[in-house]
Design brief:
- The chain has three helices and no strands.
- 76% of the residues lie in helices and 0% in strands.
- It starts with a helix and ends in a 9-residue tail after the last helix.
- It has one domain.
- It is mainly α.
């Protein structure tokens, strides 16, 4: 990987992926809290599907972060 590409992307991946995963899980928790307080107005199946998608997205981003942390990237000098 070219040095300038590496410097502008690879070091930032783990933090950003982790942040995205945590935010998605927090959004799912907020949705659950909202449903407990306000109810689903007859749309519980859709609300549960939405929460499931938020949780899945969060877990995938955390798994992506782990994969990135385990990957070895090499800088090259090629243009």
């Amino acid at each position: 990987m070219r040095g300038h590409v590496y410097d502008s992307s690879v070091p930032k991946f783990p933090f950003r992926a982790g942040l995205a995963g945590i935010c998605a899980l927090l959004a799912a928790a907020g949705e659950v809290l909202y449903l407990v307080r306000a109810g689903a107005e007859g749309r519980m199946a859709f609300a549960c599907l939405f929460i499931l998608m938020e949780v899945a997205g969060g877990l995938m981003m955390l798994a992506f972060r782990k994969k990135i942390m385990d990957t070895v990237f090499e800088k090259t000098g090629h243009h």
